[in-house]
Amino acid sequence: MPISPAVLQNFPLLREVPQETLLRLSSIMTERTFARREIMIRKGEPGNVLGFLVEGRLQGVDFTVDGREVGLYFVEPNDYFGELSVIDGLPRPEFVIAIGRSRVVTLPRDEARSLLVSTPTIAQLVTERLARRLRVVAAQRTLLGVPNPAQRVCAQLIQLSIGAADGKAVIVHAPTHQEIAIMINTSRETVTRVFQVLQARGILRREGNQWQVADVGYLNDVAEGRKEPPKAS
Question: Is the pTM of this model over 0.70?
Fold first, then answer.
């Protein structure tokens, strides 16, 4: 069954694509639903599609040499993934798993690459996203060098925070404690203990599916070693 062009227009990457092109793409794209924790992409397999997330949430992960899971990035609804292999034709560099029930549509690599080469606005968007991803990877590498796990929790919360309309910081689509743990190479129990202290001190407040950050300065001070890391009593 073809994908509706109206669905494709929700993806920022495809908003500048002419309607006739969207109609053609919709006829060759495929759709699949993934259960929670189901693997969408396996590391090392051929990168033969560009994926778009319609609903749900995905996470890029890899594993250390001793088998520990490491979280790399999240994919939110209307975002795309798998672009590296589309560009260079090499095997997938990581796993992508569904962290909630997720609906995905995919475009064959040849079509995706042709679209990238022929559409300057798409090429620019992909290039800018790759640059942002490189900056995040560099910051994450620095974060993982911090020896104290509580400091790493605070540093990760800063990286996940964005400015809200009221001038405060917010973490949207709040990751679980386990998801944060695999991002910073620590245990879920450690993350939970730090969150309990931060909530008790009023630094973090849960509102639906997001966290309100009341004191970014405190998180910065802890992350940079100017204040003692929070400890559960």
Answer: yes
